[in-house]
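Extended Data, record Amidase
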Amino acid sequence: MLSIIETRRRIEAGELAPAAAVEAAMAAAKARNGDLKAFASFASDSAAAPGAGPLAGVAVGVKDIIDTADLPTEMGCAAIFGGWRPRADAAIVDRVRELGGSIIGKTETTAFAYLDPAPTLNPHDAARTPGGSSAGSAAAVAAGLIPLAIGTQTAGSVIRPASFCGVAAIKPSFRLLPTVGAKTTAWTLDTLGLFAAAADDLAYALAAISGRDMAFGDDPAGLRFGVSTMPHAGERSPESEAALERAASALAAQGASVTQVTLPGALVEADRLQPTIYQYELHASLGWEWRTQRAAIPPGLAAALAAGEAVSTDDYDRARGAARRARNAAKDLFAEVDVLLTLSAPGPAPARATTGEARFNRLFTLLGTPCVNVPGLRASDGMPIGIQIVAPFARDSRALAAARLLELAIKAL
């Protein structure tokens, strides 16, 4: 995979010109796209020309539910939005350009960021799903085409495809990155996320884009890790359970405090009610599409919209109340441990007929807490298995520091 930090080091050392770095990434992405199908469209050479700043020379892919003035934004549903061109860039796109980054193309997404599969293939096995909904973003970085991609997560759409494709990714704290100009599907859940080669690359990009310091001042080996298999979330593969045990043992070998934890009942209840919030807000957000373009909506999304139509405001408000109680309970949990260690997905990537399940992600999106997928572990057939780091709200630098420590621990195995 391409490293943002290494790319910037070479540029600052005079070993690589920013334009050459972007041109190489563009050429690689176009050459592989016929097979991988990670990109929905590509920018012109002039539009992708690098600017000046900390992301100069960094080629970026942007999920195709995020507005770009120079490229179509088709929402993964060309039957409704084919060729649609916004008049302005989304806030996140404008920020990347301001920092000198080059948007080389729009990455494939599932239709309206829901669960109906995108055309993208998993770079490790074409018969497996890359996950969703940020399928193209995860696959493009994992395949070594670009060093940075932007996705979104409403349930598990950043962490899960990162796990399936074997790439680092962060879903930051809720609203740390602006969602203005991204297609809304659930306004209390939608969160922008980043894909990169490693935790240090994520920290560099997130610091630049958010304007916050992502350095972790204390020794990360002193962090208290709480391990949870999240039994309420349902079945997980034996190989995933074994991977989580290996990750915990590797951290302990590095001197970290590792203990088993049980999630409070308020978190379990909020997780159970998350679909109520998601379906209600999804139906409201896609009301125009549902009323006027129903025949063009793919089957999985159509079923979710029909379910959302049946959710009462009373049920929605009760679910929101459960979410508020869970956020308060999470504060108590994180008084006992500094970060949680759990699975990023129930197992390795399944077949392409599905995008996988968000059972190990949606709770933390609902809580608004930062989550990082740490790659490096694999199933017996070689497919990636990700480990998820979860930190308290607004402790994104802590999540990244813990992810960095786990990366090193895995490499030491």
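Summary. The chain has two domains: 4-210, 220-266+320-411.
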